[in-house]
Amino acid sequence: MKLKLTWLMTLFMAFVMQLSFAQEKTVTGTVTSATDGLPLPGVSVIVKGTSRGVQTDFDGNYSIKASTGETLVFSFVGMKSSEKKIGQSSTLNLSMAEDLAELETVVITGYAGATNSSKITSAIATVSAESIEQVPINSIDQLLQGQAAGVNVSTGSGQPGQSATIIIRGRNSLNGDIEPLFIIDGVPVDQDNFRSLNQNDIETMSVLKDAAATAIYGNRGAGGVILITTKTGKKGSGVKVQYRSLYGVADQPDARFDVMNASQFLTFQRDLLPGTQFGDGLSDATIAAIAQQSNTDWSDVFFRRGKTKSHEITVTTGGENSSSFSSVQYYEQEGITFGSSLKRFSFRNNFNASSADNKFNFATNLTMNYSVSSFVVDAVRGNNTGGQLDNPFIVPYIGLPYLSPYNPDGSLNIWGTGPLGSGGSGAFNADGTLNANGANGFQNTPFIALNTASLGSDLESEIKIVGRISGDYNFAKNFTIGTSFGLDYTNVEDLFITPPNSIRGVNTPNAASLDKGTQFENFYRDISMIANAFVRYDNDITEKLNLNVAIFGEYNYNNRQNANFQAFGLNPALPGSGAGFTSGSTSEGPDNDVFNYIPTVGSSETELALASTFATLNLDYDNRFGLGASIRRDATSRFIENREGTFWSVSGRWNIDNEAFMENVDWLSTLKLRASYGVVGNQNLGANRRYIGLQTVNSNSGYQNANSYALGTLIDPAIKWETSNQSNIGLSFGFWQNRLSGEVDFYNNETTDLFASKPLSTAGTGTTSVQTNVGDMTNKGIDLQISYNILRQSDTNPWDITLNANGNYNKNEVTSLPGGFTGNALRIAEGRSAFTWFLPRWAGVNPANGEPLYLDLEGNVTNVYSPDNAVYLDKNFDPTYTGGFGADIRYKGFSFNTLFAFQADRWKNNSSLAIIEDAGLAGFANQSTSLLNAWTTPGQITDIPALSNGGLRAVDGDRYLEDASFLRLRNVSLSYNVDRKVLEQTKVFTGVRVFVQATNLFTWTKYRGFDPEGTTSTTFFEFPVPRTFTLGFDLTF
Amino acid sequence: MKKYLSIITITGAILLSSCGDSLDRFPVDQLVEETAFTSVSDLQLGLAGAIGSYDPDNFVEFNSIFTDNCKLGAFSGGQELNTLNQLLNADGGDRGIWTSHYGTLNDFNRLFAAAAAITPTSIEVDQYNNILAQSHAFRALMHYELLLYYGLDMRDNGSAGVPYVDYVSADATPARNTTGEVLTAIQADLDAALSLFPAGTTDINFASPDFVTFLRARIALESGDNTGAIGFATTIISNYSLATPAQYVGMFQEDADTTEVIWKYDSVQDSNLGLTGNWNFTGLDGFIEMSNELAGLFEGSDIRTTVNLGGNSDASTNYFSIGKYPENADTQAINDFKAMRVSEAYLIRAEALARTTQFALAAADVFAVRSVRNGAGVNPSYPNVQLALEDILAERRLELAFEGHRYIDIKRMRSVLNTGIQRDASDCEGAVPCNLPFNSEKWIFPIPTVEINANTNITQAPGY
Fold it and tell me: Which ipTM score applies to this complex?
């Protein structure tokens, strides 16, 4: 009902006639844009020195009562304001020019909203709507890849809607949260879940990078803050309806490895591989016959062309005192393998209103979304490792090529074939009966994966609501008070079914039970609430000096609940329903004393609370000098002994371009020096460690499954937030009317009280370590963001070309860590970058005898593998260089945009490849064609040891440590905006845009696999990020 | 202006009132230590937690896979390769036994601390005493096992042992106690247990007076107290009889028979050691198999062949799955770990007798076990201690296969027999090592790196 009213009110306000004031005559006119001559709606027309004002209508027309001799002031965002004196004529038309200086940027900052970029004292990168709209990537965080300097984005899976891991300016924590705080329209939201949100609703994303920008977020700001602002209507802009759509396909990326075909594999087994396996003793003719019949490249079977479609309607309204933005979207994206998809329905309404005197402002933002994600058994799902035999992405590596994916009738075989000895997959016995163990066995991998994908269900249905109501009131000269209430609500219902008639079902709950299958459901509810109030004082103390001070109080509360059950024994006729569950009291077995169907249940709840007071101060002197300061006191429920922390920052700027001595320097439009220092915290020391200040005792099931008490993880009662001491010096520049513009920033972030393992004597304490504030770490680096507008579109020049690039160099160093290091192969070690590789060095194959060779500590070649020969390889998991670059080219109505993203100097262990170069597995798993080059004869130079050495995966050292650097053509699009003159003739459309685009079209990397990106240090059959092609159009009415 | 002031005042009040009690958030799903243990029944819950944290599985796994009892399985996907390859280093090579044992010890020590603050009512006294007795007995067992694997020499009271821990601390960094100190403390714990067991403590799923006697027999044998070993073993033997072949099969299948069991670690549905998972995927698909050598030693007439060899074994392809902990009739592989059996007491006594050159008695004890298992078993006679121990070791290999003894048995006898681990050539193809010399450093477990790093008082075993 409330929504309906909002709508009615919005529409009413849009169409309401302006009330006018009794004056001598009515002045009318049309305001147009100087660039293209089109009417400008929503231009504010005010009689100077009075409060009389109107706005132009959709056709740019206005009508105002005024007297001759008075002056009309015309103003509009992005245009140069202009003043016209009213003469004898009662018609006054105006052509408004773009204000290039103002167009440059408005920056969104924390708790202050839009601020002119020249007034900014901190390091903030802004990503605008144009670069993220209509890109078929369904997680807002993923969209940031390559868009902003110092923002490193990695995605762990190609599952549609997968949340990315974002690290701003280097890893700032070892065991605590490394990702930034995300805030949508003033509401802090879950940083790992954006799949239900519609990215087309976003107006801008602001990445707050230094303490000057983030200290105002206190003990949550150390990892940076990302402020997301969604679209609003513009007052006086009338009603605009837009229909947007997207159609596309997603394809598999290139595989940068080769596995054997059937003939190669069987010949290899027979001729090269020691031991007993199927290929032994087969004649060439038999092998040829088998290969003729089935020579399967399992990539072809498991990857599919996923479809994407999206339909969206947005309505933007703008009346005299209010505006609104509403959108409704249906989005559907299929992953590149069976059973992977995301469907969602998103709704948003943003409403803004002001009193006639603009003293009272009111806004609501509300988005409600429903999505259903369908998952496969991919490597990052739940507790998966990637090694699950029903992981679809293991099959292209190890699926036996001589097995056919099809039944004789041509349908897909989802069960497997006959006994192993006769070249089958082991799922069936010779008599045709199902062999339950064989069906779940290694050789049957392809069919297990097909079976689970075809028959099983792994769904998450999510309701996501983010909303906020805010108001402020300018109650006295220079004083404003305001308050807001926000909510982030997430409800996820998991539904996981292993159906009775499936491979995984035959042994569930166990092989002897009469009824089979299992159903698991989890109900998850997470609510974050925020309440905020402030008083702001803003005054021009002298003509040149502006003072802006605000104090705030804020309370954040989060409540998270889970409830789940798992039932066993499903009636196949009642899939997914509780009516089909076998009763837990059903007993079976010879003595009727075996209970196979006892359901498991669970329930849990956790809370967090954060109470804060904070203040900001901003001084501006003559637009030349600026000083900013903030201080925040946070008290958190997470800690007990050290509950309260104070965080602060100071920052300054010098707008050199506004100095008198620069007045005559034409080529320089912007030159601003910035410096900041501040102290920010990180209180999120582990997602599931909300009671880290309390020594807990867990109630579990212990010996004999009896109820038990056992000590929870040992804690340090003095635990507190991590502290990040951040300094930043930056230069913002713009030359030749900002045609060449950019920012360069140098930063040094020193994290102290780092949350890390303090090694304990297990003998003395019963545990190996306690996580507490013990270490120090630094991140030093450079952010560079640059944009060069080579050609600028004008009346005479149809071309507009802008090149832009951003990059970050980050040097991370752990400066202090008790015990010197933690970890084995992937270490955190004092004096080195966090997550650095420490492994024995592989030195190839001895040509004399085919043995693997290694280097010992001194670098001498040895044939003995020893973990004691492990050394620091000076290769790190986190990239040293990240960034992106691209070009935006426009010609008349055409627009061509590219975005490249890169990560460099990044090393990952390629365990997927190790699996297919492992002679120990070659008896029952397909192998890389490289094994055909295995050493066989003395003197042979090869990098594959003699197969008689067996499986070497446990002793391969750094053999598979690979450079996972990549350069990716993240997005390329070509769009055409139909000419407005053509549109005018249709009398229906005011805008038509048609576009084609490709995402992740090319990836250049040395990494041997499907996808170098990923979020894990050791690759193990991850779901690769797809390559997508889309076609779409936006119609505006 | 007054109006404005009041607005400011109200706003300020809202700002400040947002702090306070709202920050005291206590876990809903967990207890806080200070208030967790308030009654004897809470202690009972603590006991279930502490015993539940003991993991004998590690020994079963290590003793079989590290030695000549196992080979790479046909279904291997790389599981347990490090153990098969005899990688034993300070970085996790000890299978986490140090960490898990001291963790369990910490649980018991915290239980003692909690119990000290609780006074039982008269009807709770037995329960309370039993909790303490169990805690003492398990504390002794933990220390014994640590000493056995990490101590430098069980037979030298002056040698470096392991830290004896009977306290709760958040920062202690104990040095190794001497073997003698640890053994003395173990005996004190066992005495305390005996004095606290309520009358009629006979549940074989828990520690009992017989558990104490049996543990003392093992300790005596390992520490070279042959007389003690003979005495304690005799007490056990007089209280328990050897299982008949039918009972023996029943003992390992369905856990149906407990004739010869002094103590077992109970596995139940949802709290299952999952012993078969040490070697097998579902349904005896072995990623680790019984070695060809061991499979060859099991004779057809030996009931232990039936029990140890998995039903899907196939001699024609040399496929020998380990079937000692089979799926039950309901196909769930829930098996108790029969940690103390009377047959072991016979073999303990036999060894102690042989070491004291009482060869005829020793042979009689060996034959007592052998004949009840294998109708065609040969009655041995021993001319000297070497041949006696060799035969006892061979019998132990068959009798106690996959029960966590092989590595320790070879370790104990290697000084007499001068042999280490010797795998059959067919069991050590590829990168799998064929032998471990009797003087290898790997007969003493390394102290884990994490302990060395955190505890400057501890000394690493030689060779690591």
Answer: 0.90
In a domain, A846, yes or no: no
Chain B residue numbers with beta carbons less than 8 Å from the beta carbon of A274 are 429
Give per-residue pLDDT as tens, A62-104. Answer: 888 888 888 888 888 777 778 888 888 888 888 887 765 545 5
SS3 assignment, position B169: coil
| Residues A95 and A206 placed together within one structural domain of the fold | no
User: Which tokens go with A504?
Assistant: 């995984």
Residues of B in contact with A927 (CB under 8 A): none
A215 and A115 assigned to the same domain = yes
* Alpha helices for B356-441 (secondary structure H): 359-373, 385-399, 406-417
Domains contained in chain B, number = 1
**Distance (Å) from the C-alpha of residue B351 to the closest C-alpha of chain A?**
33
Which residue type sits at A300?
A: D
Q: A119: closest CA among A453, A458, A454, A616?
A: A616
B-interface mutation test, from A551, A560, A708, A838, most B Cβ less than 10 A away: A708
pLDDT digits (tens, 9 = 90+) for A350-393: 999 999 888 999 999 999 999 999 999 988 888 888 889 999 99
Least confident residue range of A204-213, A231-240, B165-174, B412-421: A231-240
Do A128 and A216 lie in one domain? The reply is: yes
pLDDT digits (tens, 9 = 90+) for A800-855: 999 999 999 999 999 999 888 888 899 999 999 999 999 999 999 999 999 999 99
Domain endpoint, select from A69, A102, A135? A102
Are A76 and A190 in the same domain? no
Mean pLDDT, range A864-881, rounded to an integer:
93
Those residues whose C-beta lies under 8 Å from the C-beta of residue A121, and which sit 6 or more positions away, are A212, A626, A627, A628, A651, A652, A653, A674, A676
pLDDT for res A19: 37
A858 vs chain B: nearest CA distance in angstroms? 18
Residues A174 and A109 in one domain: yes
Regarding whether A161 and A65 lie in a shared domain, the answer is: no
B119 token code pair: 């006074």
In a domain, A200, yes or no: yes
Dist CA B438 CA B418 (whole Å)? 6
Given this model, what pLDDT does residue B30 score? 86
Token pair for A212: 């000057």
For residues A226 and A108, state if they share a domain: yes
Q: Which amino acid is at B406?
A: R
Separation of alpha carbons A579 and A597, rounded Å: 14
Measured between beta carbons, the chain A residues lying within 8 angstroms of B321 are none
Last residue of a domain, one of A176, A199, A230: A230
Whether A86 and A149 share a structural domain: no
B/e letters for A920-953, b = 16+ CB within 10 Å, e = fewer, are bbbbbbbbbbbbbebbeeeeeebebbbbbbbbbb
| Pairs of CB atoms within 8 A across A/B | 297
Q: Does A849 touch chain B (CB under 8 A)?
A: no
Q: Are B187 and B164 in contact (CB under 8 A)?
A: no
In a domain, A379, yes or no: no
**Is pLDDT above 80 for A10?**
no
From the list B77, B91, B317, the residue facing A442 with the nearest CB is B77
Sort strands A181-184 and A225-230 into parallel, antiparallel or unpaired: parallel
Mean residue pLDDT of chain A comes to 90
CA–CA distance, A275 with A352 (Å, rounded to integer)? 75
The CATH number of the domain holding residue B63 is 1.25.40.390
User: Over 90: is that where the pLDDT of A722 sits?
Assistant: yes
Range of the domain at B201: 39-159+176-448
In sequence order, the β-bridge partners of residue A813 are A778
Taking only the tens place, the pLDDT of each residue in B323-348 is 999 887 666 788 999 999 999 999 99
The position carrying tokens 């072949």 is: B245
Q: What is the residue range of A11's domain?
A: 2-102
Residue A263 lies in a domain: no
Q: Assess if residue B22 is contained within a domain.
A: no
